[in-house]
Amino acid sequence: xxxxxxxxxxxxxxxxxxxxxxxxxxxxxxxxxxxxxxxxxxxxxxxxxxxxxxxxxxxxxxxxxxxxxxxxxxxxxxxxxxxxxxxxxxxxxxxxxxxxxxxxxxxxxxxxxxxxxxxxxxxxxxxxxxxxxxxxxxxxxxxxxx
Length: 146
What we know:
Elements: E1 6-7, E2 10-11, H1 12-28, H2 30-33, E3 52-53, E4 56-57, H3 73-82, E5 84-85, E6 88-89, H4 104-114, E7 130-132, E8 139-141
Antiparallel strand pairs: 1-2, 3-4, 5-6, 7-8
């Protein structure tokens, strides 16, 4: 029988996965999914999206309803492996080739970590026409709803 120690609502195993996921996120995701000002401070919040890359705004990866709160682990892996959310293709900047060197276990650790970051309301929807966002002071799809 294995004892599971719960700390901050997460089992030790989940904490280890989240810590491993945090390292990967800081290396691979932070730069694009955290829009920063000239002093390198997050404008809206850590991983809240909004940075313009190749004509599209990076999405919010936080567990807020405007982010990826509706994702489960299976959907997260499928999205990154296929480059699609359901029938909708991701923008070219999120090409699945970027994740070929990352194992499913590593992506699961990333997902575990993303569930622990503070939720931040910042609606970014690249399927809509860009409108002014008072939070990040840019134009992106869904901007007027923030």
